[in-house]
Amino acid sequence: MKTSVTLLTTALLASPLTVLAAQSDYTYIEGDFIATGEGELEGNFNNTPIGVRGEEDYDGFGFKGSIDITPNLFIESAYDDIEVDDGDSEFEFLSGGLGLRTAIGNNANPLDLYGVVTYESVDGRLLGADFEADGYGITGGLRWQASPQLEINPYISHLDYGEIDDSDADLDGLRFGVDGVFNVNDVFALTAGYRMTKLEAEDSTGSIDLDLENEIRLGGRIYLTK
């Protein structure tokens, strides 16, 4: 696998750089390798102290896609698969929804403000116990074309998964991060991102904090409109 990644990266870097249109493209597919992250669990639930479990490393992979349907509307979807090194915890995150964008920058370095309303789902295993929940998310962010080749994308999301497995426990929280996109040419791009997700499950007996921190993502993007 490492050989394939090396060959792909070499091929992309060897592609002739072209003068790119200085604007954000919302029609693409992207694959990410979640190289590393730190998971932490803490709290008191069902009258059982969980305590600080320490930081367990995790890794995984993800996919993301976006389609521009009008000059200001787009559809976005994403899937992440995460496995924690403790062997008793793993998570699958799925989202999809409708986004609205508007240009607020100048022509030299365009800046887009965007917002997305999504359906959100999480399916996983935590300390050996399976669980699932689904709800909604609201994301706001910026896409800044710092140069024809480099785009910077900070964002923040509110996630509300509702009740876990039809129980009385509600799961919600925040996700925030920043992505960098280096456009190798007008079709291919290399991506790198930093992300943190902070979730809380709470019912009348107590609450558990689940933090997925210092997540580093590396990947590639293919623009479909070129």
Question: What does this protein structure show overall?
Answer:
- With 226 residues, the protein is mainly beta.
- The protein has one domain (2-223): Lipocalin, CATH 2.40.128.
- The protein has one helix spanning 2-14; strands at 28-45, 48-49, 55-68, 73-84, 90-103, 111-126, 129-145, 150-163, 170-183, 188-203, 206-223.
- The protein has a ten-stranded antiparallel barrel with strand order 1-3-4-5-6-7-8-9-10-11.
- The protein is globular, with a radius of gyration of 19 Å.
- Residues 1-22 have low confidence and may be disordered.
Topology:
Blueprint: H1 2-14, E1 28-45, E2 48-49, E3 55-68, E4 73-84, E5 90-103, E6 111-126, E7 129-145, E8 150-163, E9 170-183, E10 188-203, E11 206-223
Antiparallel strand pairs: 1-2, 1-3, 1-11, 3-4, 4-5, 5-6, 6-7, 7-8, 8-9, 9-10, 10-11
Question: What is the overall pLDDT average?
Answer: 85
Please work out how many helical segments DSSP would assign.
1
Low-confidence stretches: 1-22
Report how far the terminal alpha carbons are from each other. Answer: 28 Å
Roughly what fraction of the amino acids lie in strands? Answer: over 45%
CATH topology grouping: Lipocalin
CATH class: Mainly Beta
The domain tally reads 1
Strand tally: 11
**Order of strands across the widest beta sheet?**
1-3-4-5-6-7-8-9-10-11
| Succession of helices and strands | HEEEEEEEEEEE
Keywords: Signal
Signal peptide: 1-21
Protein name: Outer membrane protein beta-barrel domain-containing protein
Using brief descriptors, characterize the structure shown.
Lipocalin, Outer membrane protein beta-barrel domain-containing protein, mainly beta, 69% strand, signal, disordered N terminus, 226 residues
